[in-house]
């Protein structure tokens, strides 16, 4: 399993540099409302994304806790931001060739609830290797 985990603050109106200073992190991406995304569709609202490095052989629970507990992001600030904006943790989960089980621990779910942070999953199935030996 490979994971890509991010924290997004969507719909903010302040300058992204101010948000950087408040959160204590540099964004991986900042999207502006109306700017075209890679597919050419305008972003519906501003978004500030912080990505963890992709993780192999990890589980969503570990990555979520790393993002929320092992970073310098203030829990008090996340709660305040969540009152006016969508604050979302997204886990993109890439499975290889077969289904895999994962779960979120009670402590992680409790932390997300306490911070008023939304949680989303994007789940993909990829082939780990492609055998082209029989291709003609």
Structure in words:
- It is a single chain.
- The protein has four helices and six strands, in the order E-H-E-E-E-H-H-E-H-E.
- It has helices at 16-23, 60-69, 75-84, 106-115; strands at residues 2-10, 29-31, 47-51, 55-56, 86-96, 118-126.
- Strands 1, 2, 3, 4, 5 and 6 form a six-stranded mixed β-sheet that branches.
- Strand 5, helix 4 and strand 6 form a beta-alpha-beta unit.
Produce a short descriptive summary.
This protein is of the alpha+beta class.
Features:
six-stranded mixed beta sheet; 4 helices; 6 strands; alpha+beta
**Count of spatially separate domains:** 1
Q: Largest sheet, described in full?
A: 6 strands, mixed
Determine the strand fraction and express it as a percent band.
25-35%
Mean pLDDT over all positions: 88
**With helices defined by DSSP (H or I, 4 residues minimum), what is the helix count?**
4
Series of H and E elements: EHEEEHHEHE
The percentage helix is 25-40%
What general outline do the C-alpha atoms trace?
A: globular
Extract low-pLDDT stretches. none
How many β-strand stretches?
A: 6
The radius of gyration is 17 Å
Classification by helices and strands: alpha+beta
User: Could you give the distance between the termini?
Assistant: 31 Å
